[in-house]
Amino acid sequence: MTAKNAENPADLRSAGLEAMRTALPGLFPDGDIDLRDGRLGEELVEIGLTSVWGALWAREGLSPRDRSLVTLGILIALGAETELRTHVRIGVTNGLTEDEIAEVIYHASGYAGFPAATAARNAAREALSG
């Protein structure tokens, strides 16, 4: 399986924008947008747009809901709390319930450790309260 419409970098960028807009409704305006801010490392968002959102989230094979479950587990294991807050909200958009998000955190405690799960719980609480 491949990303939809991913024949060249422009297609990956377009697929990435579509996937991001679906996952984070109302955050990005319609049409082509420039995500660079003129500061150090400004290309990182563009790299993520094509390589993560375009090449991975736009792929067929897993539903957005399943991708959210996998992503939450990975982010918990990595201790990536900033990304986790965003992906908790994306998970809700993709149909996860708060109880299911809690279960991912509980399950991760056995594999990633209790401190990682506690940090994830705190990040998820913050994401869901806002």
Write up what this structure looks like.
The chain has two domains: 9-57, no CATH class; 64-129, AhpD-like, CATH 1.20.1290. The chain is mainly α and 130 residues long. The protein has helices at residues 9-23, 43-57, 64-78, 81-93, 98-112, 114-129. InterPro entries: 4CMD/NDH-1_regulator (IPR052512), AhpD-like (IPR029032), CMD-like (IPR003779). It comes from Streptomyces shenzhenensis. GO terms for molecular function: peroxiredoxin activity. Pfam families: CMD.
Structural descriptors:
130 residues; mainly alpha; AhpD-like; 2 domains; 6 helices; globular
CATH C-level of the largest domain: Mainly Alpha
Oligomer: single chain
Helix content: 55-70%
Question: Roughly what fraction of the amino acids lie in strands?
Answer: under 5%
Based on CA atoms alone, the radius of gyration comes out at 15 Å
Give the CATH superfamily of the largest domain: AhpD-like
Structural domains: how many: 2
Distance between the termini: 36 Å
Largest sheet: none
Number of helices: 6
Task: Report the uncertain regions.
Answer: none
Instruction: Report the count of strand segments.
Output: 0
The CATH architecture of the largest domain can be named as Up-down Bundle
Instruction: Give me the strand/helix succession.
Output: HHHHHH
Summed over residues and divided by their number, the pLDDT gives a mean of 93
Please render the helix and strand layout as text.
Layout: H1 9-23, H2 43-57, H3 64-78, H4 81-93, H5 98-112, H6 114-129
Helix pairs in contact: 1-2, 3-4, 3-5, 4-6, 5-6
